[in-house]
């Protein structure tokens, strides 16, 4: 069982930031020339893609429990005689 849920928006945002850092690191080391304004289209496009993937994952997660809850109708509710019970099976006053 996984310890946390998968967040694709954060993954995409992190990869975009690593790409921008790599571009500027390459420019700083002299491997290639990157104009100062190149980061703006890269970050805006990457963060838009991250937002779209986060929204899509949110919509998928939101629909999954509703779909499984609607198919789990096993009949009678928990208490049909008007009394409520605690977690030990005893009636509450």
UniProtKB/TrEMBL annotation:
<keyword id="KW-1133">Transmembrane helix</keyword>
<feature type="compositionally biased region" description="Polar residues">
    <location>
        <begin position="78"/>
        <end position="93"/>
    </location>
</feature>
<feature type="region of interest" description="Disordered">
    <location>
        <begin position="64"/>
        <end position="93"/>
    </location>
</feature>
<keyword id="KW-0732">Signal</keyword>
<keyword id="KW-0812">Transmembrane</keyword>
<feature type="signal peptide">
    <location>
        <begin position="1"/>
        <end position="25"/>
    </location>
</feature>
<protein>
    <recommendedName>
        <fullName>Secreted protein</fullName>
    </recommendedName>
</protein>
<keyword id="KW-0472">Membrane</keyword>
<feature type="transmembrane region" description="Helical">
    <location>
        <begin position="35"/>
        <end position="58"/>
    </location>
</feature>
């Amino acid at each position: 069982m996984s310890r946390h849920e998968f967040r694709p928006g954060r993954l995409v945002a992190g990869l975009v930031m690593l790409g921008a850092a790599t571009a500027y690191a390459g420019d700083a080391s002299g491997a290639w020339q990157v104009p100062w304004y190149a980061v703006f289209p890269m970050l805006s496009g990457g963060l838009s893609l991250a937002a779209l993937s986060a929204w899509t994952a949110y919509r998928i997660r939101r629909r999954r429990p509703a779909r499984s809850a609607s198919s789990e109708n096993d009949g009678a509710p928990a208490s049909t005689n008007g009394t409520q019970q605690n977690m030990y099976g005893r009636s509450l006053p």
